[in-house]
Structures are given as structure tokens and as C-alpha cells.
Amino acid sequence: MSALSNEYKYKMLNLHMQIALEIFSPIHPWQHPMFAQKELNVFIKRDDLIHPLISGNKWRKLKYVLLKAQAEGKTHLVTFGGAFSNHLLATAAAAARFGFKATGFVRGEEVQNDTLFLCRLHGMQLIFVSRDAYRNKPELFQQYFGQDEQAFFVDEGGASVEGTQGCAELITELPTQYDHIFCACGTGTTAAGIIKGLQQHQLPSAFHAVPVFKNGEFMRNEIDRFLTVPAPYHLHTDYHFGGYAKTTPELISFVKDFVSSTGILIEPVYTGKMLYALHNLASKDYFAPGSSILAIHSGGIWGLLGMKDKFAGS
Ligand SMILES: *Cc1c(COP(=O)(O)O)cnc(C)c1O
Predict the structure, then answer these.
(1) I want to staple 168 with a disulfide (CB 3.0 to 4.6 A). Which of 73, 197, 212, 268 is the partner?
(2) Ligand 1 — pocket residues by CB below 6 A?
(3) 8 A C-beta contact, residue 151 and residue 145
(4) Looking at the whole model, is its pTM more than 0.85?
């Protein structure tokens, strides 16, 4: 087969997959007496509704990664995550949906849990590696799949320029301009993508990133390395609740109140912390009366399954 016809074939495949990857998530109001009192209009972009497993920002982050893999003729996605990684699960589900083979390197000793069960159910092969070995991902890839010409490296959390490209598209879906936009950040890819989207469309919305780690100041470097043009944004580093996947009774009770009063499912690792931050800032009169605020629900609700004990008795 000539190179040209191969190129044509991939173009058609890409086009086909691109159409299958198009998404649109609805925006719902978040009503709360305190917001009404402060004259704030708060909305939630329901990226959690995009897909039950390739949820939220993971779909956006994977979109151009998958298209790149396919354009390069790769059929095997190799990626990395912790034992409760939403990204592993999203990659497993996306691989099954779009016809890739998938391997996930899992950090730490072999364990069984609901997330990994669902990864396997979608056909992902899991390889457990020590925390030490896990640190050098390109080396792990080389060591295990250096000879596999079909293998395609997907970084932990889907962190990549392609990931930011997919997240930037969120901005094109907004029906109106918001004064403030909030999102949670882990790798900072989603935040960087949204900032890029705001830049591309010359929108003046103030962007707010809420790191879910302790000492989240380092997130500024992670976000900035994806930006070709520097941009101002707010980083709220006081809402980590003790660190990654750590919670407090206050956060758990916020999540419970939120879910039971809105019917919107959230988890306390990402979206719970981000919405708490938004709510807390509002209560301290951080926003001018009349402001419109959009929070991105980045999905990940299966993370709840690893936290049932935190809710026990509450
Ligand atoms: C993975 C994840 C994030 C983190 O996104 P980054 O692009 O890595 O910053 C945020 N929210 C949820 C629900 C996630 O699963």
C-alpha cells in the first residue's frame, strides 16, 4: 500500500473518531440561599455527564491524545496511575470504546479495588510497579514496550499539550460570558487548557484553579509550562484539606450537603474541594454582587467508591 493511501486511511479514521469524540455537556444552576443573599449567579458545567467512565476532563484530555495515537498508527495505549486513578479508568474505557489495546502501570504493591476491577473489565492489562520504579515512566515504557511498535506512551493523568487542546474546547461550548470560572487541578492540564481557551477567544473571565494537593503553589509552574502566552489567573492553595485524597469531617459534610441538596454527585478528591473553595470564598464576600460564576464539574465520581469509609456514620 502506498504512503499516500495510508495517509488517506488515517485521515478518514481520524475524522471518524473525531466525530465520535465530539461532546457537549450541559450547564446547571447551583442554587443556594447564601448565593442568593450575596446576589451571585453560580453555575456548574456538567462534564461529569459526558460519559460514565471517561468522565469529565479525562475525555477532553484524551481526545487529541487518541487522535494522535491513531494518526501514528498506534493501537496500544500505555499509561500510568495510582490504584484509584480516574485517568487509568478513563483510558481503559476509551481504549475499549475506540478499539485500542491498553496497559496501565499501577503505582505500588498489587491491590484489588473497584477502580482496578473496572479497568480490567474494560480489558486493560495492569502492571504493578514499586513507587521507585514508577517515578521514571519513560524508562518503564522503554523497558516493557520498547520493542512494541504499536505502543503509545500516555503520561500520567493525560498530562500533555494535546490534553490542553481538548480542554480548551470547553470554552467554545459556553452560551454566555462568565465573570469567574473555577476548576480543580491535579496535573494542571485542564486548568492550562481552559486558560488557553479563554485566550483564544479573548474572553476576560477571571480564571481560578484549586490545587488538591498540599503546598499547591508548585501548580503555577505546572500550568505555566503549557501556556505559550502568559496569562493572569488565581491559584487558591488553601483548600487541600491535608493533602491529596485527604479529607476532613467538614469537607465530607459539605459533600453530603451538596449532593443531597442538588442531586449532583461529586467526590471529595477534586470537585468537592473546588466547590468548597468557591462556596467559602463567596461566604467571605470575595465576589462582587451580581457576579456570574461557572464551576467545572470534572467528573471522577467513581473516586467515591474508594472513600466510603470516610462517609461512614455521617
Ligand atoms: C483527574 C481529575 C482532575 C485533575 O485534572 P488535571 O488536568 O490533571 O489538573 C480534576 N478533577 C477530576 C474529577 C479528575 O478526575
Answers:
(1) 197
(2) 56-57, 86-87, 157, 184-191, 270-271, 298-300
(3) yes
(4) yes
Q: Which residues contact 197 (CB under 8 A, 6 or more apart)?
A: 167, 168, 169, 170, 171, 172
Task: Measure the CA–CA gap between 91 and 66, rounded to whole angstroms.
Answer: 10
Q: Considering its fold, how many domains does the chain have in total? A: 2
Residues 125-165: tens digit of each pLDDT = 999 999 999 999 999 999 999 999 999 999 999 999 999 99
Q: For a pocket test of ligand 1, which of 298, 304, 305 has the largest count of ligand atoms closer than 8 A to its C-beta?
A: 298
C-alpha 73 to ligand 1 mean position (Å): 28
Give the Å distance between the CA of 184 and the centre of ligand 1. Answer: 7
Pick from 84, 86, 255 the residue to mutate for probing ligand 1's pocket: most ligand atoms within 8 Å of its CB.
86
The continuous run of DSSP H or E covering 307 comes out as none
Q: Cβ-count burial of 290 within 10 angstroms (0-12 exposed, 13-18 middle, 19+ buried)?
A: exposed
Q: Indicate whether 11 belongs to any domain.
A: no
- What is the CATH classification number for the domain harbouring 285? 3.40.50.1100
Which secondary structure element, helix H or strand E, spans residue 311, and what is its range? helix 308-311
Q: Which residues contact 312 (CB under 8 A, 6 or more apart)?
A: none
In a domain, 13, yes or no: no
pLDDT in tens, 95-129: 999 999 999 999 999 999 999 999 999 999 999 99
**Pair (67, 143) in one structural domain:** yes
Give residue 190 CA to ligand 1 midpoint distance, Å. Answer: 7
- What is the reported pLDDT for 56? 85
**Based on the number of CB atoms within 10 Å of its own CB, is 36 exposed (0-12), middle (13-18) or buried (19 or more)?**
exposed
